[in-house]
Amino acid sequence: FRLVRARVESLAGKWLEESDWTPPTPDIAPKEFSPSLGAAIAQDVMEPMLRDKARELGADLRMSTELLRFEQDEHGVTAVVRERDGREYTIRAAYMLAADGGKSPVREALGISQQGRGPMRTVRSVLFRAPLEQYLARGVHQFEIDQPDFKAFLTTYNDGRWVLMFEGDAERDEAELRAAIVRALGREDLTIEIITTGRWELGALVADQFRKGRVFLAGDAAHCLPPSRGGYGANTGIHDAHNLAWKLAAVHAGTSTPALLDSYDLERRPVAWVRHQQIFARNDYKAAGRGISDGVAILDDDAM
Predict the structure, then answer these.
(1) pLDDT: which is higher, 303 or 256
(2) In this structure, are strands 114-129 and 223-224 parallel, antiparallel, or unpaired?
(3) What pLDDT was estimated at residue 80?
(4) Are 132 and 193 in contact (CB under 8 A)?
(5) What are the Cα distances from residue 268, in Å, to 117, 148, 235, 294?
(6) Are 292 and 277 in contact (CB under 8 A)?
(7) How far apart are CA 38 and CA 46, in angstroms?
(8) DSSP class of residue 60?
(9) Cβ neighbours of residue 228 under 8 Å, at least 6 residues apart?
(10) What percent of the chain has pLDDT over 90?
(11) For residue 71, what are the CA distances in angstroms to 94, 116, 260?
């Protein structure tokens, strides 16, 4: 399973070169660590599966509900929330887990600072559907579009949907978006369905604490990492949730003391920093790292 990216003039045009996320080490024999290979799945496909399973296991999910404020004491956390219809009410819990994104209001309210490469740039993107499966036959799913006056990044969700990401923060109307997609594909004969557009901030920051009192940070609230081959940001967040969930369950059940929860920050924050440094040690982001990972030894994909 190789994490390969191709630099191309266009998808149907000249392919200039291919590159691995981690430099190959042919002298090291491949190992089997799992019965499953790596896989990519779109967030809007995965999340409904997780929600359904959570409900099956008894989770109380409250959608369209906003956290207004919270406070904590030595016994628990009190949160005031508001539903979309305007109704406000209070939730009392022993602990709170904040997975509220890279600009986490909870992290800000707790006064937790961040360190790292920092904000890098604003990214514009367009999500579209087109019949392009033939270009995936070589096992490459990520493409750097490299034309003299047009630079972009193209990748697929492996379900007929593709996303084209642009350099720069320019607004484009539908005609301009279609023209850009055609340039990236190198073909004008395909039916293209534009689904939506996006705008987001690319950057890398790790919180100085993953816990403050009875409140824990996880996912992008704890560590915001740029998209990478291997999905370092998402996988780090998923492991945060696993690490903390079983520990909270053990404390809640009385099979462990609350001291177990002190290990969450000790175990997860170093992993976030390793991932941060490994991203900027590799060629995809090395130039953008501004030397932040100089001298960092690149770990192999199995280790990561």
Answers:
(1) 256
(2) unpaired
(3) 98
(4) no
(5) 19, 42, 12, 23
(6) yes
(7) 15
(8) -
(9) 21, 279, 282, 284, 285
(10) 78
(11) 12, 28, 23
Q: Identity (one letter) of the amino acid at 106?
A: V
135 is catalytic: yes
Strands 15-20 and 96-98: unpaired
DSSP string, 80-126: EEEETTS-EEEEEES-EEE---TT-HHHHHHT--EEEEEEEEEEEEE
Cα–Cα nearest to 152, from 128, 183, 121: 183
SS3 state at 237: helix
Residue 265 backbone phi and psi in degrees, to 5: -65, -40
Which residue in this structure is represented by tokens 């002190």? 262
Locate 241 and state its tokens. 């949730």
pTM, full prediction: 0.88
Q: Sign of torsion, CA 214 215 218 224?
A: negative
Compute the distance between CA of residue 163 and CA of residue 179 in angstroms, rounded to an integer: 14
pLDDT band at 3 (very low <50, low <70, confident <90, very high): confident
pLDDT for the residue 35: 82
Given 95, 135, 264, 285, which residue is catalytic? Answer: 135
Per-residue confidence band for 109, with pLDDT thresholds at 50, 70 and 90: very high
